[in-house]
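Hey, I'm writing a tutorial for new members on how sequence and structure tokens pair up, and I'd like a real worked example in the thread rather than a made-up one. If someone can provide the structure for the chain below, I'll link this post from the tutorial.
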Amino acid sequence: MDPRDVRELLERVRTGELATDQALEVLQQLPFRDIGIATVDHHRALRQGVPEVIFGQGKSVDQIVAIIEEIVRVGQSVLVTRIEPDKGEAIAARVPSFQYAPLARTGKVTVKPPPERAVGPIAVVTAGTSDIPIAEEAAETLLAIGLRPDRIYDVGVAGLHRLLLRVDELRHAAAVIVIAGMEGALPSVVGGLVATPVIAVPTSIGYGAALSGFTALFSMLTSCASGVVVVNIDSGFGAAMAAHRMLPGSS
């Protein structure tokens, strides 16, 4: 149940269209339901202003489908992250409204579109093409929560002129998510160019000494650009949710 549903319910009680006992029966579905394989949170949209999210990695198709069906049953949208193509196709075959984005490894069922946030676009920037899958996870998450991504891909420090051509876009963004592997230098550069929040995402892209993303992580944590926020390695989802929390109208 999201805030729009609660407001509508209370308004119907206020106008006498719905009896108090009927409204109470609806609210008794909150805040969760145990379906055996999972305890599904029906209260998240009301608390945090975003749909429930299923972490798909390690879950079976049966488990994911059961959780999706329970969330949709109460009229909520749902986002699923970290699902490989074969699993995504299997879920789509059983849940016709399931929309799968293979590059992002995410899927969603939209019961009702999220309310659009009264903020500008969120720039999603990658250092290289190899970082795009993580960027797409961030972009798809932003779309699921009512924020608009502006994709700016393959503009890393190895060819800095590519980034400088996009500075106006960066400065007009409400926040910037910067995704980089290797030495992870790009967030520092972007952090020195814009005043808006910068959220850095280290990726596990790079040769041996990149240490599966730890080199980029340490570099971003010690950025000389003040106030750059760093999320976990390969966490495009985490970066999008950080932007959600930072910006106005998050609940």
